[in-house]
Design goal:
Layout (H helix, E strand, L loop, with lengths): L14 E7 L8 H10 L1 E12 L5 H11 L12 H11 L2 E7 L2 E7 L1
Parallel strand pairs: 1-2
Antiparallel strand pairs: 2-4, 3-4
Length: 110
């Protein structure tokens, strides 16, 4: 199924697991995407995935600015590891965030 992550065509609490692999750094309306992934996740469900975060590797950040933003593959604003932890902690009861270079990996329980 293809659709808009900012307006998912599913009922509230439809899924046990929501996974986003390398998506949030590209979504134009990140706030809507976070709200929608939360909305469609069942209580006790897991939200997990990974995506680019800025500030963890200056060389990657430079490449993102020079190429990926200009080509339209990545959309600002970007999370940092700390801002991602803070954002997810406001929504989810359990939050784990780690990173490898410029990729944040997260696992949350609603």
């Amino acid at each position: 199924m293809q659709g808009d992550v900012g307006k998912l065509p599913f009922k509230d609490e439809s899924f046990d697991v929501v996974t986003s692999l390398n998506g949030f750094h590209a979504f134009p309306d990140k706030d809507a995407a976070y709200k929608e992934t939360y909305r469609v996740l069942k209580k006790g469900g897991i939200f997990c995935g990974c995506f680019y975060v800025q500030g963890s590797n200056k060389h990657t950040d430079k490449m993102i600015r020079r190429f990926y933003i200009k080509s339209g593959f990545f959309t600002e604003p970007f999370e940092t590891v700390d801002s991602l932890k803070a954002r997810l902690s406001k929504l989810y009861s359990t939050v784990e965030v780690s990173n490898v270079e410029s990729i944040a990996v997260f696992n949350c329980v609603k």
